[in-house]
Write a structure and sequence with these properties.
The complex is a heterodimer of chains A (about 230) and B (about 200).
Chain A: H1 3-16, E1 23-29, E2 32-52, E3 55-70, E4 88-89, E5 93-104, E6 123-129, H2 132-151, H3 153-159, E7 183-188, E8 191-200, E9 205-211, E10 214-223
Antiparallel strand pairs in A: 1-2, 2-3, 3-4, 3-5, 5-6, 7-8, 8-9, 9-10
Chain B: E1 11-14, H1 23-26, E2 37-41, E3 47-48, E4 53-54, E5 72-80, E6 89-93, E7 98-101, H2 102-156, E8 164-171, E9 177-184, H3 187-204
Antiparallel strand pairs in B: 1-2, 1-7, 2-5, 3-5, 4-6, 5-6, 8-9
The chains are: A alpha+beta (about 230), B alpha+beta (about 200).
């Protein structure tokens, strides 16, 4: 295992080890809800690490096995049953979800152990999918975008403190056109913040920005033209 | 619309790329007049889709789409869209943002607007009839109040001026409301009125 994976598994084991191998009854299977109780067991997590464009991507697989449980009359339970009440079980089924995490290899704080899962992470357990290839593909796409944001990082830090006041009719401040590398104001973290357009998605613009208090967290938002603003006479 | 159905030179109802696009706007049966531009398709060449408007069809921002690209659009030209203050401009519209031929949309809107106008005229006529009716009721109620007041004056004198008359909306048996006069009378006035009546009855007897 590499350094980044070791570090991630250590924090996972510290906080979530007890969940793995534990059998319990619930109406929930991750974010899916049943109208009756099921019996589920979380299997040991799997991890895969990929190095991509100066980032370490870790794909965490969370696996469950679960089955329906029935009482003496063959009915489902609507509340948590006692073990002795369960008379039969349905077919064993499996459910898997893959999440992506990523750290910049020469990033901030990589020399220290993690205090929490997503400390200084570029990807914080998102791009979830039941197919590992899809999660990896989405994570790589995010890292590609990250490279574009890093390229303008110095400019972002320089403009982070700039301000624009709100107006009653904000649509008057929408730019007529917007292209990559334009500097625009967007709504973010409680006020209008200046950012740079780093990418377009056809109908929307990806605006990168940082807050003055945290230059390491390179943030971005994907917004339509009507949510971009420019200062008058700027 | 489907790319295959598009034809050069035809005027289409097109949702501007810088505006919000929604299912309702894309539906030819629901789209409203101000949601689309009356735009002409300039060419059938596929361009990389982006939100950009220019007064020049050969603008450097309009780049041909790479082969196999899914984010493509067609150049359209229009000066007829909500909020426009300038002449013809060009932009790239996706096939899904080209709603339908403008003429067919125009037919539907004209029909709907005519219906709306007729509906409004009917509402106006009904409102005016109701107002007229109310005016008549108001006048009738006021007339009866005046008549009652005059008669009372002849019986109880100036005390009649101290009575409160008002016009109220009263619910009828059929559920409708009708204006009618009402009077608040204090007990002393009522007493003297009753005395007068009893006196008169005695005189008759």
């Amino acid at each position: 295992m590499s350094y980044f994976l070791d570090r991630f598994v250590a924090i996972q084991d510290k906080y979530y080890k007890n969940y793995q191998g534990n059998t319990h009854h619930s109406t929930w299977l991750r974010n899916k809800r049943f109208d009756h109780m099921i019996e589920l067991k979380q299997l040991p997590n799997t991890y895969q690490e990929i190095e991509y464009k100066g980032h370490s991507i870790i794909v965490q697989g969370i696996h469950y096995q679960w089955c329906d449980i029935f009482d003496v009359n063959g009915n489902h339970f609507s509340s948590v049953p006692r073990t002795s009440e369960i008379k039969s079980r349905g077919d064993l089924q499996f459910s898997t979800i893959f999440l992506a995490w990523a750290w910049r290899i020469d990033g901030v704080g990589v020399d220290k152990p993690l205090n929490w899962n997503s400390e200084h992470a570029v990807i914080c357990g998102s791009h979830s999918s039941d197919k590992i290839e899809k999660t990896i593909k989405l994570a790589k796409k995010r890292i590609d975008l990250e490279a574009k944001i890093v390229a303008v990082q110095d400019q972002l830090i320089a403009i982070a403190g700039e301000r624009m006041v709100y107006s009653t009719n904000m649509s008057a401040y929408n730019p007529y056109n917007a292209v990559i590398n334009d500097q625009v104001f967007i709504q973010g973290f409680g006020r209008l913040r200046k950012g740079i357009i780093v990418e377009t998605t056809g109908s929307r613009f990806v605006v990168a920005y940082v807050t003055p208090s945290n230059h390491h967290d390179l943030k971005y938002k994907t917004l339509p033209l009507s949510r971009l603003y420019i200062k008058e006479n700027a | 619309m489907k790319s295959a159905d598009l034809q050069i030179g035809i005027k289409y109802g097109v949702i501007p790329s810088w505006d919000y696009s929604s299912q309702d706007k894309k539906d030819p049966a629901k789209v409203q007049r101000r949601a689309v531009a009356n735009a002409e398709l300039v060419s059938l060449e596929k361009y990389e889709y982006k939100v950009y408007r220019s007064d020049n069809p050969d603008d450097a921002q309009f780049t041909s789409a790479p082969k196999g690209s899914r984010s493509v659009g067609y150049i359209v030209k229009s000066s007829d869209w909500a909020g426009n203050t300038q002449g013809d401009i060009y932009w790239i519209a996706r096939a899904q943002d080209i709603v339908a031929e403008y003429a067919t949309l125009e037919t539907r809107w004209t029909k709907e607007e005519a219906e709306e106008k007729a509906r409004e005229a009917q509402w106006k006529a009904e409102r005016e009839a109701k107002e007229q009716q109310e005016k008549i009721e108001q006048a009738n109620a006021q007339r009866s109040i005046d008549a009652v007041k005059e008669s009372l004056r002849s019986i109880i004198g100036n005390r009649a001026d101290k009575l409160d008359f008002e016009i109220r909306n009263r619910r009828q048996e059929n559920g409708e409301y009708k204006l009618s006069g009402a009077c608040t009378i204090d007990v002393r006035t009522l007493q003297s009125l009753i005395e007068k009546v009893l006196e008169a009855r005695d005189m008759v007897a």
